[in-house]
Design a protein that fits this description.
48% of the residues lie in helices and 22% in strands. With 120 residues, the protein is an alpha/beta fold. Helix 2 packs parallel to helix 3. The radius of gyration is 13 Å and the shape is globular. It comes from Neorhizobium huautlense. This is Two-component system chemotaxis response regulator CheY. Keywords: Phosphoprotein, Transcription, Transcription regulation.
Amino acid sequence: MQRLMIADSSDIVRTVAKRILTELNFMVSEAASAGEALQRCKAELPLVLVVDAGLDGALELITGVRAIPNGDKVRIYYCVIEADLRKMMQGKRAGADDFLLKPFDRKILSSVFANLAIAA
């Protein structure tokens, strides 16, 4: 089972995403802050990290994960509320691999992550 971490300050977003992603056979951990997420990544790197762009310290979290040994292998998704090109470019420069538009639902998460769950 592959590890996936959700870093989002919203309890509701984390709970809903965790329920959906657990059904896709991910072992999901949660972090309510960038600091908590970085500590957990240092202890055990996930295969996938989903970072909310609205999280305080989101960009620092991404660069921090990239600085951890093997942090370059983590697939990082940067969540934005709309296709805000400036915010997306900041995420890309920090080291994000891809983007997710919020709000996401079961169909979106399934289409994005089903292949990763199978491939892993």
